[in-house]
Write a structure and sequence with these properties.
Blueprint: H1 15-23, H2 27-36, H3 38-46, E1 50-51, E2 53-58, E3 63-68, E4 72-75, E5 88-89, H4 104-118, E6 120-121, E7 124-128, H5 135-139, E8 149-152, H6 159-163
Domain F-box: 7-51
InterPro entries: F-box_dom (IPR001810)
Protein name: F-box domain-containing protein
Length: 164
């Protein structure tokens, strides 16, 4: 006989109790809660959950946002890879916050902005894993200009590409 799982609507909790419940959840569960409604998103905002470091990664096959401390990987593209230790949310999980018609770069930008508004985020790093990615297009996006570290990986970059 399997134990019966019970569910309880979080919205029925008093504000202080709801805030405490959200603060003790894992970061991937907090994101799933925030995606459910504007109300829950606003509750998550007032919980002031800190993310020590964020990284936006662009690659040929992948585009994702990595959160460190606590660790979670958020995929903004159709493809996902298996990370051995960090929980992950796929494009399907994040669907309410992503646009069906937008490019991967645009979806990543929108999601990155939303994460920074939702959580108290520390400095972020930007990684571009392929010389075929449009480096200039990514670096011209205002949300991606204030990085603390820029990683350019996966090929030879010409001085002209980096000076643009």
């Amino acid at each position: 006989m399997q134990p019966m799982l019970s569910t309880f609507p979080l919205r029925k909790l008093p504000f202080v109790a709801l805030k405490h419940v959200i603060q003790v959840m894992d970061i991937d569960e907090i994101l799933k809660i925030a995606i459910t409604s504007k109300y829950m998103e606003s509750i998550v905002k007032v919980c002031y959950i800190q993310i020590r470091q964020t990284m936006a990664i662009f690659s040929r096959e992948y585009s994702y946002i990595g959160l460190d401390f606590p660790a979670v990987t958020l995929f903004c593209c159709a493809k996902a890879f298996n990370h051995p230790s960090a929980p992950k949310l796929t494009k399907e999980d994040l669907k309410p916050w992503l646009s069906e018609t937008a490019t991967t770069i645009e979806n990543t930008r929108q999601f990155f902005t939303r994460i920074h508004k939702l959580f108290q985020c520390g400095p972020y790093r930007l990684m571009i894993n392929s010389p075929t990615e449009n480096i200039k297009e990514i670096l011209e996006i205002p949300e991606f200009r204030n990085f603390t570290v820029l990683y350019l990986v996966g090929g030879h970059f010409k001085k002209e590409q980096l000076d643009e």
